[in-house]
Recover the amino acids of this structure.
């Protein structure tokens, strides 16, 4: 894990509210500024108001899933440079190919340690 923490703004989008809230609290403790959204549509609205540097994005959500949200974000000029990190239990090769094709910068498989999350966010910011 990095020894110096970033003040980057991280938006966590996950329909599992408890998982999203815990990730937010842990990243806050690491010096990140965080916001949470509990679904794709809410994530799109939160991205517009929060202006994140990184979006930690679950893939399997009802309604607008992570792939659809990534496509919507990448279609908007103001979000083309935001780092997208897929954060999902789906870690198979096919899903990883889909996340790359959808414009994600990194893919992190759940469960992940805090060290893995922080390192992945840092890698996404430098991609």
């Amino acid at each position: 894990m990095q020894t110096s923490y970033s003040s980057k703004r991280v938006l966590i989008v996950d329909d599992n509210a408890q998982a999203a809230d815990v990730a937010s609290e842990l990243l806050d403790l690491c010096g990140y500024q965080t916001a949470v959204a509990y679904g794709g549509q809410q994530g799109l609205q939160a991205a517009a108001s929060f202006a994140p540097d990184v979006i930690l994005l679950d893939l399997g959500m009802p309604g607008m899933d992570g792939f659809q949200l990534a496509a919507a974000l990448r279609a908007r000029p103001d979000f083309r440079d935001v780092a997208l990190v897929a954060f999902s239990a789906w870690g198979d090769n096919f899903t990883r190919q889909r996340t790359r094709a959808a414009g994600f910068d990194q893919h992190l498989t759940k469960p992940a340690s805090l060290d893995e999350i922080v390192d992945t966010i840092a890698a996404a910011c430098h991609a």
Q: What stands out?
A: The longest helix spans residues 17-29. Residues 14-125 form a domain with the Rossmann fold fold (CATH 3.40.50.2300). The chain has one domain: 14-125. The CA atoms of residues 11 and 35 lie 5 Å apart.
